[in-house]
Design brief:
- There is one protein chain.
- It contains 12 helices and 10 strands.
- Helices cover about 55% and strands about 15% of the residues.
- The chain is elongated.
- The chain has 2 domains: about 190 residues, no CATH class; about 150 residues, no CATH class.
- The two termini are about 30 Å apart.
- Helix 7 runs parallel beside helix 9, helix 7 runs antiparallel to helix 12 and helix 9 runs antiparallel to helix 10.
- The longest helix is centred in the last third of the chain and has 30 residues.
- It has a 6-stranded mixed β-sheet.
- The protein is an alpha+beta fold.
- This is HupE/UreJ family protein.
- Keywords: Membrane, Transmembrane, Transmembrane helix.
- InterPro entries: Put_HupE_UreJ.
C-alpha cells in the first residue's frame, strides 16, 4: 500500500471510524427517564421514574455515600426530605392558568430497576376543557451536561392515590411530550396542540437517531459500504431507494407490533450485513444485483430502527403518527448522510483509483462490522454502541 495514497485516504478512513462507532459511545448513554402525570378535577399526581445510575446523579445524593440498594428507613426519609424535596422545589414547577402550585414529594421508592419519585399537587381546581397547564422541568440537565431526556405522559383521570398506578400501568396516555434541555416547558390545554407537538417531537427524534447518535452508526457504515464501490448516480439512487423501501416495511410492521423478532438476533444480522457487503467489495470481481442484496438486508435494519423506537412509543393511542413521524425523521437524516457520502466519494475518486478507495474503506468497515457481530452474537456487551 503506497504511503502517498494512504495519506490521501486518511480523511475517508477517519470518517469511516466516526460513522462506525467512534462517536457513538454517547449515543446509548442518553440518560433516559420518564414521568407520568394524572390530571384530575382537584389535584395532580405524578411519578418521575429514573434508572438507578441516573437517580444517583441528583445533586446531593452521591455526597451521602449511602448504598442505594440497601437503604434503611431513616436514610430513605433523609433523602426524601433533605435532598429530593428541595431539589424538586428548585427544578420543577407546575401551574394551572398561570397560578403555580406547591409540589409535595409524597415518597420515593425503588420498584424493579427504577427509582420512583411520587409527587402531589392538591386543591388545584381543574376544569379539563378550559384550563391551561404548564409544566416546567429542569431536573438533571446540569448533572448530565444537558443529556437527560424525560418522556412525559399525561392521563386525564380522577383515580385516587391508591389506584393511580393501575391507570399508569393499564391505560394509554392522553398526551405525550419529550422534555430535554431545549424543551423544558410543556404547555397543554387541548389535544390538537399536543398532537402537533408530538409529531414534531418524533420527527426530531428520527433525525437525531441518525445524525446525533440516538441509534447505531452501524446503519451508516452499511450505507457507506454499499456506495463506496463507485456507483453511478443512477446506481446509487437505486441502492438508496431499495434500502429505504425495505427498512420502511419492517420498521412500520415491527413498530406497530404486527411482526416481532428477538432484538439480539436482529442486531446480529445487521452486523453480519455490514461484514458481507464489505467482503463483497473486497473479493467479488463483479458485483451484480446489489439492489436486491440491499433490499434483503434492509429488512433487518428496519427491525433495528423499530427496536430503538420502542422506548419512545406510549401505546396505540399515539402509535401511528409517532411511528410515521419518526420514520420521516429517519429518512431525512438518511438522505443527508447519503448526499454527504456521495460528495466525499466524488471528491476522493478524482485523486485516487476508486478500487483502492473501495478496498481500504471496506477493510475498516469489515473490522467494525466483525467486532459488532461477535459482540452481539455472544451477548458480550463489550462494545458500548
Amino acid at each position: 500500500m503506497p504511503l502517498q495514497w494512504l495519506r490521501k485516504l486518511a480523511p475517508l478512513i477517519l470518517i469511516v471510524f466516526i460513522f462506525s462507532g467512534g462517536s457513538h459511545v454517547s449515543a446509548h448513554d442518553m440518560y433516559l427517564g420518564g414521568s407520568k402525570w394524572a390530571i384530575g378535577k382537584d389535584r395532580i399526581l405524578s411519578t418521575i421514574e429514573l434508572d438507578p445510575a441516573l437517580f444517583q446523579e441528583i445533586r446531593g445524593i452521591k455526597g451521602l455515600k449511602y448504598d442505594l440498594d440497601n437503604l434503611t428507613n431513616e436514610q430513605l426519609y433523609e433523602i426524601e426530605t433533605k435532598i429530593i424535596q428541595p431539589y424538586i422545589n428548585e427544578k420543577l414547577s407546575v401551574s394551572v392558568n398561570n397560578r403555580s402550585y406547591p409540589i409535595k414529594v409524597e415518597k420515593i421508592e425503588r420498584e424493579g430497576t427504577f427509582w420512583k419519585i411520587w409527587l402531589k399537587m392538591s386543591e388545584v381546581g381543574l376544569n379539563w376543557q378550559e384550563n391551561k397547564v404548564k409544566i416546567e422541568y429542569r431536573l438533571l440537565f446540569e448533572e448530565t451536561n444537558n443529556q437527560h431526556v424525560n418522556l412525559g405522559y399525561i392521563y386525564f383521570t380522577d383515580a385516587d392515590d391508591e389506584s393511580v398506578q393501575e391507570v399508569f400501568n393499564y391505560n394509554q396516555p392522553d398526551l405525550q411530550y419529550t422534555l430535554d434541555s431545549r424543551n423544558t416547558v410543556w404547555n397543554f390545554s387541548d389535544k390538537t396542540a399536543a398532537l402537533l407537538s408530538d409529531i414534531s417531537t418524533f420527527l426530531l427524534l428520527g433525525m437525531k437517531h441518525i445524525l446525533a447518535g440516538y441509534a447505531g452508526f452501524d446503519h451508516i457504515a452499511f450505507l457507506i459500504a454499499l456506495l463506496v464501490i463507485g456507483l453511478s448516480t443512477r446506481g446509487a439512487l437505486t441502492i438508496f431507494a431499495s434500502y429505504t423501501v425495505s427498512y420502511s416495511i419492517t420498521l412500520l410492521l415491527a413498530a406497530m407490533q404486527v411482526v416481532t423478532l428477538n432484538s439480539r438476533y436482529v442486531e446480529s444480522v445487521i452486523a453480519f450485513s455490514i461484514c458481507y457487503i464489505a467482503l463483497e467489495n473486497l473479493l467479488a470481481k463483479q458485483i451484480n444485483y446489489r439492489w436486491l442484496v440491499t433490499f434483503m438486508f434492509g429488512l433487518a435494519h428496519g427491525f433495528g430502527f423499530a427496536n430503538d423506537l420502542q422506548g419512545f412509543i406510549a401505546g396505540k393511542s399515539n402509535l401511528v403518527h409517532s411511528v410515521v413521524s419518526f420514520h420521516v425523521g429517519v429518512e431525512l437524516g438518511q438522505l443527508m448522510i447519503f448526499l454527504i457520502i456521495l460528495l466525499l466519494i466524488y471528491l476522493i475518486k478524482k485523486k485516487l483509483p476508486m478500487r483502492k478507495v473501495t478496498a481500504v474503506t471496506s477493510v475498516f468497515i469489515f473490522i467494525a462490522g466483525f467486532i459488532w457481530f461477535v459482540d452481539r452474537v455472544f451477548n458480550l456487551h463489550l462494545v458500548p454502541f
